[in-house]
Design goal:
Layout: H1 7-34, H2 40-48, H3 66-79, H4 81-88, H5 90-100, H6 103-114, E1 118-122, E2 138-142, E3 145-156, E4 161-169, E5 179-185, E6 191-193, E7 207-218, E8 222-223, H7 229-265, E9 267-268, E10 271-272, H8 277-305, H9 311-336, H10 338-341, H11 347-354, H12 364-380
Parallel strand pairs: 1-4
Antiparallel strand pairs: 2-3, 3-7, 4-5, 5-8, 6-7, 9-10
Helix pairs in contact: 1-3, 3-4, 3-7, 3-8, 5-6, 5-7, 7-8, 7-9, 8-9, 9-11, 9-12
The structure holds flavin-adenine dinucleotide.
Length: 383
Amino acid sequence: MQFELTEEQAMIRQLAHDFARQEIAPLAAQADRDQRFHLPLQQQALELGLLNIAMPEAYGGMGLGALEVALVTEQLCRACLGLGTALCVNALAAEPILLAGSETQKQQWLPRLAQGEFASFALTEPGAGSDAAGIRTSAVRQGDGYVLNGSKIWISNASLASFFVVFAKTDPAAGHKGISAFIVERDSPGLTVGEPLGKLGQRAAPTCEVFFDQVQVPLPNRLGAEGEGFALAMRTFDQSRPMVAAFGLGLVQRCIDEALPYATGRQSMGQRLIDHQAVAHKLAEMQIRLEASRLLTYQAAWLADQGQRNTLQASVAKAYTSDAAMWAATEAIQILGGMGYSTEYAVEKLFRDAKVLQIYEGTSEIQRSIIAREMERHLAQGR
Ligand SMILES: Cc1cc2nc3c(=O)[nH]c(=O)nc-3n(C[C@H](O)[C@H](O)[C@H](O)COP(=O)(O)OP(=O)(O)OC[C@H]3O[C@@H](n4cnc5c(N)ncnc54)[C@H](O)[C@@H]3O)c2cc1C
């Protein structure tokens, strides 16, 4: 076991760090206020090789792995969780294609992402989020394809996407085994995208409803076999949760970036804030949770890169870093006192941004259910 990054990993991490500091951080507050993604960032990040990191070079990606994705996203989200998420979330739509796509499908769709298009992963519906098996959007076989009807909600980057990976019921009576996945072009007749939804935080990343009214999808756009969609979504999450854990990791780091200089610079009762044990211990606890978050995230990503089952570790990392981020943002405000509550300082945005980490990509409660299920599996295997 070794804990050192390779030279290439250290380089890409540094590149992401510099880009985030120089290009993302100065835009963060305004993008949050405007509730709008800053499109030129995407082209800049693409040119630097900071996107499509885990996509094989054959399709125009960087040909690296989940660990490099985590290293980069940590830095981008350290500068702004909203802008960082909007930049990184194409990976969530690319993953089902990488996992289940035929060679023809990979050649058809992935290079479009490598060239700068956006795509979204569309699973959640107004009536079914945690209960993914309960989705209602239907895909009925007709002629040479399928007809989709229904709606999705909370779809990240939907307003920017030129295609969607959509999960729909092909056999409504078969529960989670009746779900299939499809790639659907944005300009398909009958597909409409709603206005970006108003949100507490992560406002620079657009999130929309998507409606399907008699949308025709050709047969070659089905990903994998009929009925394999649910399993594909779950396998996708095993790959993407280390990335989302890295979002949280970046946020915890940013809380320290903001709170530590404040605590060393401000005086109270004749001492610096950090010289008061109550404040020092909060900062120390932030560092403890940062280090734990980092190890958990990198471990979950590393397992994915080894091709090993990482369901347990991906959920542990996602749950831990999300909770750590929410906790650290709350305490960062506390350390800054009244200034922490002011929109003039970054920490109130960190607090608003952090909350979503405990909700999307499986809530913190759902992660714990997955972890408990995996623990039982290990027990049954005599581990
Ligand atoms: C900003 C944002 C971006 C998102 N991006 C996407 C995206 O790109 N694509 C996409 O498909 N989805 C996306 N989502 C949706 C997200 O994944 C869901 O919101 C999430 O899975 C929770 O589902 P829900 O909102 O329906 O809440 P519910 O499932 O209704 O849950 C409500 C509460 O009940 C708890 N709960 C529910 N069931 C159980 C259970 N069995 N055991 C214990 N507790 C339970 C939950 O933990 C939660 O606290 C996004 C959401 C947000 C807010």
